[in-house]
Amino acid sequence: MSSFGRRIRESLDRFGPLCVGIDPHPHLLSDWGLGDSPAGARDFGLRVVDAAAGRVGVVKPQVAFFERFGAAGFAALESVLASARAAGLIVIADAKRGDIGSTMDGYSAAWLTPGSPLEADALTVSPYLGPESLRATLTGAVRLGKGVFVLAATSNPEAAALQTARTVDVEAEADQSVARRVARDIAWVNGSAAFGGELGPIGLVVGATVDRHEFGLTDDVLAGAPLLAPGFGAQGATPADLPRLFGAVAAHVLASESRSVLSAGPADLTARIDERSALYRDAGIVRGRAGAAHDG
């Protein structure tokens, strides 16, 4: 079984960093001529999957925009997740789950167990009940060949006060930020899993609109982890910014874009994906034959 980190590395080398969000906002459903309904969300998601397959390697459905419809919304999401995985896309369920004990075990079973109706390739999680609360989820993901992206430095400004707060954990690095403490714990999990210099299966969410160094997220603590970076596109960061923002770790960044891609509408969606992917190639990020999968 190929590890999640290896799959991400292969995807980045082939397609480049663009990760397409699947976010059926009410206004986007309207703009696309779809109803603000479970059926509309399902149709929206399936159209994004069709456009993304062969053009990017990773998609990221935002669970909240399906969950708002209740059981029918989850049924729609199940269809989108299954279709995306069947199309060969790596699917990150952006659910930001985080809890303790058996409750977190339940979330992990729902999103990361092979054969589950909500099965994804990776899940976003929150560490703010304590990074140790995620231990079983992280180790379980490694065992199953799945991935996890742990929130570290998010792109919303109101998070900075918490994520840059200083810790007093004398058993670890003294006087480090909360974000750095999270990243160090993730580095330990990836290292202990012994992936031989490859990307590990446990990644971090690091916003492209924050100064990661202010959060203590230096190259050394991020090395070896896939990085999911919201903030590109509509939030202001550009593909040309990626090398400057991430420096030595830029080669393992997934640049998440949603509104900047989805606003093109269904008729122009494939062209917009190609356009955004080309901007990352122009920035010198793509190592492999990004975009060459149009023959598939």
Structural features, described:
- With about 300 residues, this protein is an alpha/beta fold.
- The protein has one domain (about 5-285): TIM Barrel, CATH 3.20.20.
- It is about 40% helix and about 15% strand.
- It is built from 13 helices and eight strands.
- An eight-stranded parallel barrel has the order 1-2-3-4-5-6-7-8, surrounded by seven helices.
- Helix 6 links the parallel strand 3 and strand 4.
- Helix 3 packs parallel to helix 5 (about 70-85) and helix 6 packs parallel to helix 7 (about 135-145).
- It is globular, with a radius of gyration of 18 Å.
- Mean pLDDT is about 90; it is low at about 290-295.
**Secondary-structure content class:** alpha/beta
CATH topological fold name: TIM Barrel
Main β sheet profile:
8 strands, parallel, barrel
Stretches with pLDDT under 50, minimum 5 residues:
288-296
**Helical segment count:** 13
Question: Which percent range describes the beta-strand content?
Answer: 5-15%
Gyration radius over CA: 18 Å
Report how far apart the termini are: 24 Å
Q: What order do the SSEs take from the amino end to the carboxyl end, as H and E?
A: HEHHEHHEHEHEHHEHEHEHH
Question: Which percent bin holds the helix content?
Answer: 40-55%
- The total strand number stands at 8
CATH superfamily: Aldolase class I
Q: Order of strands in the sheet with the most strands?
A: 1-2-3-4-5-6-7-8
Any idea what the CATH architecture is? Alpha-Beta Barrel
Question: How many separate domains make up the residues?
Answer: 1
CATH class: Alpha Beta
What is the overall shape?
globular
Give the rounded overall mean pLDDT: 91
Enzyme class: lyase
Protein name: Orotidine-5'-phosphate decarboxylase
Catalytic activity: orotidine 5'-phosphate + H(+) = UMP + CO2
Pfam families: OMPdecase
